[in-house]
Amino acid sequence: MKKKLAMCISGLALLLGIGSYLALSNSQISAEEKTPQSSNETKKSLTTSAPFNGPSLFVQNSVLGNNKFLPIGPNDTLPEGYYFFAKPNKNTRYFKVNKTTRNKIEEYQHKPIRNQGAGLYSDDNNRALSDGTQAAYFSNVGEYQGKTVDMMISIEDGYSCRFSYTHNVGKGVTNSFGTVYGLMGPDKSSKITYSYFDNETGEPYVVKGIFSTFIDFNYNKTGWDHSQVDATYVNSNSRITYDTTSETNTKSILTGNGTNELTQPQYYVTGIFTGSSFCALPISPYSTGEMGMRYSTNLVSRMKIPTPQLSGSLENDGTKHSTSFSISMKQIVPDRLSNFSKYGYLDYTIPVNDFYKLKSFKVVNYLDDTDVTSNFTLSGNKLEAKSSFLNQDTFYGKNYEITLNYELDKTKDFFGFYKDGYLEIPYDPITQSSDLDGVQSSNATTAKIKWDYQLEINANDVTYGQGEIKRFNQEPEAFKEKLLTDSKAKGKNLNLDTELPVSVTDMAIDSKVGAYPVTLSTQDGDVTLTKEIKVNVVAMPPKVAIPEAGTTVVSSKGVPYSFSGTVSDEDSEDLSLFVTIDDGTPTTIWDKQANTDLNQPIDFTYEIPGTQLLELGDHVVKVYAKDSEDNQSEVAQFTLDIRGYLAFKELPPETLDFNQTKIGSKGSYAKLNKGVDFSVEDYRGSNTSWKLVGSLTSELKDSATNTIIKDGIVYRDEEGNETPFTTDATVKLSTGKATANNVLFPINWRPEDKGIFIQVPPEVKKGNYKGSIEMSLVDAP
């Protein structure tokens, strides 16, 4: 009996020893949470362990007796700041790669796990790695400090294994995401490296992360490298032991026999670390050398829910002029073991802004886009997870994306958000509140909407002459300014109702006639608007004006004809002036006359030589000008009617003198005191007739006595016939008919026989008599 009693006392002492140890450990953890310390300080504060009363091998080998392992209770939380652990999401991709180069060998697609009932599942989401030269690469397994993180799992050279990328951790599937098993190689211990990379650059990426493993009954032995962690945590009721004989300052060999990762936190070991990689050290418990390592997102204790991470939407199509944007809130909800507390409430206070309104929201499981919006309610600006959802085990261990959809208030001047081509819409932090973790705030963020300002250019096509273009092109910048002025170019920001300057950005205009495109441009922010106008280069020929234009002018054969006029040109530097007669060879009046005063008339006079006017009839005279661009004016023309003239070639004398004569009883004749010679020329052409006639304009009269000799002036022809000059009839003095060879007709009056005589009647008084006659050359037979 005494022996039995002694055994009971010994057993009681063992239980008390364990109890006192646990109480001490819990007390130390609580103290650490109240006074924040570094990880190294945390280790030091937990170096004192309670004495063990009894010879139990478990107590002697328990990690609870090893000051490198910090015990933590189910209601305690891991240190804040260590939030990163790899977890697949809807954007994760899966590859087999070369371990050294990370070149892709094969890409895998994730397949749903099939529940076969009775706790059995069919899982095809695993692949083999051979020779240690291959690695499993997971692209996008989470975000850390605003960067997307990739993870690679690699093993030592010479080893082979299988790895799993099953999604539904905590569903009774043994080989969950990131687990390596069936590891075989030349030794019974190996190293599995979990490396982290910046998804964008591919460079190693340092995270403050969490590595957790479940030591199960199958692969129940693993090494643990303390040098790579900031602290190592085990459950305050941990059933994990360590090998005291191989224990070093940096390494422990751990053994466990866990059977259910959802209900046995006592078989978890969790390390927090700062680095770009973490090395797991599996050890084979079998003679075959087969090893494995459970990588788990379950933790030995609660982890405080991370603050939500906000990111604003980005709309890069500025032509949409969108007024909608969204805020994405990523919320990691850590895994929960069965003995961890559940949230009583979890809500989010959404910031209010006068410039935009919340229109809707959506919540999805970030792994597979499963819509769980119905598990949340929105009242005012408070978004709350329903208690029924928080009470479900399926709520935990997920990443959620909460999308808040907003619309800008179009009645407000939201262009104050405009910067560098975008509406940069500020969004204040969201406040997260829960009964377990208190109040904490997210980051602030900005949504960006590419906004191409609605710009406008009003401008007209313009027209210039060729000569103008020649001059303008000599000063291109001045030409551009003139073009903007003449086209009345104006730019405007229709959104802001502001005027904008317009510039010429593309211009190549030749002086040849044609339509040339010119590009105008205006800009506001990084939005540029262009508009094409046409510069029409036209021929602007000179203008010639002469009074005779369109008329017929009569001139005589062989007589020079002179005419005058003006020439003007709007744009050319010089002018040349030409005349043709009957479309003959042009005669140059001017050659490159300087046109210094644009569009002002320049006078000219030209005489057509008589030698060009010998042919009778109508002659077309054309006058035209050409400018320096070889543009010809309209022809100014008139008709010059060259007529053959009938005229005195030699005129008779204006005064005829007669000899004195005596008054006789029978009368007498007074003769010319000398012969009279004159001539008629007729250039009117062949077979034209003419006659020379005379008529009396005043009778002979003596001014002293006023005595008149009536019918005293007579003409005697070659036949001796006499005809007196009277006022009421004409006297034929001579006739002629022109031929091709006979155009000159001499007329000779001799005192003896032919010509004009004075017939003196017998009763006339003596005196000095004067009278006058008029001779006419008549175009008639």
From TrEMBL:
Residues 1-23 form the signal peptide. Keywords: Signal. This is WxL domain-containing protein. It comes from Enterococcus ureilyticus. The lineage of its organism: Bacteria, Bacillati, Bacillota, Bacilli, Lactobacillales.
